[in-house]
Amino acid sequence: MGRRVNEPQPAALSRKRTNLPAIAVALALAGDSKQAQGIVDELHRRYPVDTVANSVFIPCAQALLESNRGDPTQGIQALQAASRYELGPVYFFMPIYVRGLVYLDAKKGQEGGG
After folding, report:
1. CA-closest candidate to residue 38, choices 51, 24, 48
2. What is the pLDDT of residues 50-72, one digit of tens each?
3. Low-confidence stretches of the chain (pLDDT beneath 50)
4. Domain map of the chain by residue range?
5. What is the rounded CA–CA span in Å between residue 65 and residue 75?
């Protein structure tokens, strides 16, 4: 059984300011670096002064992308912009979760938990 002809691609469903940041992180978590990087670039271009995108979601996506590329140390650096939001329940503790994942990938689990 083949794909339906009009079946939408997940990232093509909606490209709004409210969901693009989360899509970038989800794609990076799923290992789809090419699409995630494209959305990060689009966010930078379309919303250069959006605090939530630029201070929480983009750093999280970038950290995951760097980790996926085999450079978790660069990923840890990318998360510095999100550090003030790590314990914020508004973002579902996403920055601290991503930090933990990247530290684990860097074989520095003890540092990531503290």
Report:
1. 24
2. 999 999 999 999 999 999 999 99
3. 1, 11
4. 15-112
5. 7
Tokens representing residue 36 in the block: 């995630």
The dihedral through the CA atoms of 69, 102, 37, 3 has a sign that is positive
Cα gap 25→7, rounded to integer Å: 23
Question: How far is it, in rounded angstroms, from Cα 6 to Cα 83?
Answer: 41
Amino acid identity, position 17: R
The reply to whether CATH 1.20.140 applies to domain 15-112 is no
Residue reference for tokens 């969901």: 19
Please state, in angstroms and as integers, the Cα–Cα distance from residue 94 to each residue in 4, 11, 26, following that order.
Answer: 34, 20, 11
Tally Cβ neighbours within 10 Å of residue 61.
28
Check residue 18 and give its pLDDT: 87
Coil, helix or strand for 24? Answer: helix
CA–CA–CA angle 46, 82, 79 (5° rounding): 95
